[in-house]
Design a protein that fits this description.
432 residues; Lyase, Ornithine Decarboxylase, Chain A, domain 1; TIM Barrel; 12 helices; 21 strands; 24% strand; binds pyridoxal-5'-phosphate
Length: 432
């Protein structure tokens, strides 16, 4: 997906055909504005490859990237399932009209109450992460006289090139069963021996914001090798091979990720080739994009406030949001571009550091940002904020979380209203 900046006849930034200056007049700032068509196009791009290659598949949206009722409704309407990693996400997905059968449950410490919720809802698949979970789940299923589909999460020992905080495929990860030590096979044996758990396949997720296909190829090869081994040793026949998400997106001009389709094309090619060689039946191939479905689809709009010149060092420009609505720069040193909504293509005249309004020196949104002259009241746009932005938002310093709008065909629809001061006190009880 290319980063295309759309403008209207006045030269203003538009999102989904809506003038962003009009958007902020109506909804205020900070505002997270999604271009719905972009999300639909990404979904279509992923699906198209599977369809062309005539492979049974499922695209499962990793809802931690952006979990909202409107989002679940949008993907459900477009034939995409979702994965959830908590009871809260499961509840939201069900409320967002996601069919239970299309929901997968991930996590390294699913609570008994959360597992019970998943069993009660009869979701599509619980991705088993550790031995404790097998015990918890067995107790629940026995007590309720229920069955459920499960998959086995394994760490194939593949390390994708990415930031160390967001790699998960290596053996020392906190997620999943290690293969080399024999843990994974032992877990599978336990699951196969349990009549209440129907083992449908195996899963791995090698990391996030991955730009090259090599990691996926290595993982696919290793997963098929494991399937072959377990087929021969245990008679295990997997219906599903889930290769996780992690497809990289473009945050700044420097980022050059592969298009989503190219990742999928390669994954399918390698899985087909290895499965044929191993003389196995081709399982359904599942992928779990989070960031790639929503990341580039949203832009955050801020109002510029104060600024400060530190002689010969830098020029700070402060906006009315920051780490409370986008913690990724502080958490992962994530990089973003920024420009003015009234004229995105204006010639830069300064190099500034965009900071937020939170009481942390690390509350920096963009370092060394080239901008034209700015003044208080200007609207600053930061693109590619659609993933892990709102879902990681906080009320630090008692700043309300922003509003979220879905824009499409020139229409804007409020999907999450701006938090109010009253909202922030909603759970608090007075001493008097
Ligand atoms: C986070 C996560 C994903 C999605 O990762 P993205 O980088 O957003 O695509 C997919 N699967 C699992 C198990 C995850 O934990």
């Amino acid at each position: 997906m290319t980063q295309t900046i759309s403008t209207n006849s006045q030269g203003h930034l538009t999102i989904g055909g809506v003038d962003t200056l009009e958007l902020v007049k109506e909804f205020g700032t900070p505002l997270i504005a999604y271009d719905v068509k972009q999300i639909k196009q990404q979904i279509a791009a992923f699906k198209e490859v599977f369809i062309k290659e005539n492979v049974s598949y499922r695209v499962t949206y990793a809802s931690k990237a952006f979990s909202a009722l409107a989002m679940y409704q949008l993907i459900a309407a477009n034939g995409v399932g979702c994965d959830v990693v908590s009871g809260g996400e499961l509840y939201a997905a069900l409320q967002g009209s996601m069919a239970p059968e299309m929901i997968e449950f991930h996590g390294n410490n699913k609570l008994p109450a959360e597992l019970e919720m998943a069993v009660d809802a009869q979701i599509g698949c619980i991705v088993i992460d550790n031995f404790q979970e097998i015990e918890f789940l067995d107790e629940i299923l026995t007590r309720k006289q229920q069955t459920i589909k499960v998959a086995l999460r394994i760490t194939p020992g593949v390390e994708a090139e990415t930031h160390e905080y967001i790699t998960t495929g290596q053996s020392d990860s906190k997620f999943g069963f290690d293969v080399l030590s024999g843990q994974a096979k032992k877990a599978l044996e336990q699951l196969l021996a349990n009549p209440r758990m129907q083992v449908c396949g195996i899963h791995c997720h090698i990391g996030s914001q991955i730009f090259a296909v090599d990691g996926f190829i290595m993982a696919a090869k290793e997963m098929v090798r494991i399937l072959k081994q377990w087929h021969d040793e245990l008679g295990f026949e997997a219906q599903i091979l889930n290769l996780g998400g992690g497809f990289g997106i473009r945050y700044t001009k420097e980022d050059q990720p592969l298009p989503a389709q190219d990742f999928v094309k390669e994954i399918i090619r390698v899985v087909k080739q290895e499965i044929t060689q191993a003389n196995l039946n081709l399982p359904e191939i599942w992928i779990e994009p989070g960031r790639a479905l929503v990341g580039q689809a949203a832009t955050t709009l801020y109002t510029i406030g104060s600024s400060k010149e530190v002689a010969d060092v830098c020029h700070f420009i402060a906006v009315d949001g920051g780490m409370g609505d986008n913690i990724r720069p502080a958490l992962y040193q994530a990089k973003y571009d920024a420009f003015l909504a009234k004229d995105p293509l204006a010639k830069p005249t300064q190099v500034a550091t965009i900071v937020g309004k939170y009481c942390e020196s690390g509350d920096v949104l963009v370092k060394n940002c080239e901008l034209p002259d700015t003044k208080p009241g200007d609207i600053l746009a930061i693109p590619s904020t659609g993933a892990y932005g709102y879902t990681m938002a906080s009320n630090y310093n008692r700043n309300p979380r922003p509003a979220v709008v879905f824009c499409e065909d020139g229409q804007a629809k409020l999907v999450i209203r701006r938090e109010t001061y009253q909202d922030m006190l909603a759970y608090e009880l007075s001493l008097r």
